[in-house]
Specification:
The protein contains 14 helices and twelve strands. Bound molecules: pyridoxal-5'-phosphate.
Length: about 400
């Protein structure tokens, strides 16, 4: 046992044991404790001087680092197959800090047109004020070569996307980024490290909303970035500047949540497949967006680059917005709420949540229609979920 390297273990073993201190010996706790302290003592001014000179890695202040955060970071790094990880106060803190670690005024980003609403708004509303130009490319990356200029620095993609579960070809994106020496950043929230590991395929950085499947119980807001040691130090510096550090209490819940990530993702995937198949046959449903279905435009790509299809799906009702609203208002087991990846199944209308306030053109590009319902599958019994869908659609 002792000679086995963590890197050789499977993902669920890494989720449980990754980052945890050695637990052998008498009276050792099995669970990582919450170190609540905001500040940490030094034994001498000499030690403090060494810290200031960067010659020791002591904890000084929780925004800079904290032992509970370190465990969460090592666990996520192990799962993503990355040298390191940084945990943050939210997914958006991870995304903004990772992007700003790689960008300065005058630089350009190429991003996929379909993105989580918060990331899209950051690039649409904030980056232009900072002198950062964003160019969008379709999910198939068609015409991407024409978007490159000498100032292009970052390729930012999300796959699968919210809410229509479209995929980017990860191999193609990495090859393009390497050819043009771009920093490649990918939002891996929907897939989770259980279903895909972009770092192993050559990505520079992975970002997560750890609020979702990683924590898994809808009880914290949290984020993470993973990548090599150099990038993680740059992201850590951004967190120190901008203040998006994680609270140790949240880190405790994140560590606890991650331990069951593998079984949750598997169960959510089974529930999603059952629900997708049911919805696909329902006469009131116009279209189901689930990469596990053969009807999905990226089914073949999903089979190639993912180890499962995940617990998220969306569907369009023939009756448009009124039908979608009626369905959401009638659902009982499926709770009407934002967010995803938790143990409770949720439904939501993207036009009233992630895609609020977007123009018709923006919605069209995102593949969202007013009658689109997004579904996050939880861990309930699939028969009960399907009964609820039946009554809500009746
Ligand atoms: C929720 C989400 C985010 C934002 O994360 P927060 O934790 O809410 O800040 C980013 N990307 C994706 C894909 C998300 O689902």
């Amino acid at each position: 046992m002792k000679t086995n390297k963590l890197a050789n273990y499977g993902p669920q073993t890494k989720a449980i044991h990754g980052g945890e201190p050695n637990r052998r010996g008498v009276n050792g706790p099995i669970v990582t404790e919450i170190i609540r302290s905001s500040t940490f003592t030094f034994s001498s001014t000499e030690e403090m001087k060494l810290w200031a000179e960067g010659k020791n890695k002591a904890y000084i202040y929780t925004r800079y680092g904290n032992p509970t955060l370190t465990v969460a970071q090592k666990k996520i790094a192990a799962l993503e197959g990355a040298e390191g990880a940084i945990v943050t106060s939210s997914g958006m803190a991870a995304i903004s800090s990772a992007l700003l670690a790689a960008l300065k005024a005058g630089d350009e980003v190429i991003s996929t047109a379909q993105l989580y609403g918060g990331s899209y708004r950051l690039m649409r509303d904030v980056f232009p004020n900072m002198g950062i130009v964003v160019r969008q490319v379709g999910m198939d990356l068609a015409g991407i070569e024409a978007l490159v200029t000498p100032r292009t620095k970052v390729l930012y993609v999300e796959t699968p996307t919210n809410p229509t579960l479209r995929l980017v070809d990860i191999h193609k994106a990495v090859a393009f980024a390497k050819k043009h020496k771009l920093v490649s950043i990918i939002d891996n929230t929907f897939a989770t490290p259980i279903l895909q590991n972009p770092i192993a395929l050559g990505y520079d950085m992975v970002v997560h909303s750890a609020t979702k499947a990683l924590a898994g119980h809808s009880d914290i807001i949290a984020g993470a970035a993973a990548g090599n040691a150099v990038w993680m130090e740059r992201v850590r510096q951004m967190i120190i500047y901008l203040g998006g550090s994680m609270d140790p209490g949240a880190a405790y819940l994140l560590i606890r949540g991650i331990k069951t990530l593998g079984v949750r993702v598997q169960r959510q995937g089974e529930n999603a497949m059952a629900v997708a198949k049911f919805l696909e046959k329902h006469p009131k449903v116009a279209r189901v967006h689930y990469p596990g279905l053969r009807s999905h435009p990226d089914h073949a790509l999903a089979k190639k680059q993912m180890r499962g299809f995940g617990g998220m799906l969306a569907f369009d009702l023939k009756g448009g917005l009124p039908a979608a609203r009626r369905f959401c208002d009638r659902a009982r087991l499926f709770l009407l709420a934002a967010s995803l990846g938790g143990v409770e199944s949720l439904v939501i209308l993207p036009i009233y949540s992630s895609h609020y306030n977007m123009t018709e053109e923006e919605l069209r590009r995102a593949g969202v229609s007013p009658g689109t319902v997004r579904v996050s599958l939880g861990l309930e019994d699939k028969e009960d979920l399907i009964e609820d869908l039946k009554q809500a659609l009746a």
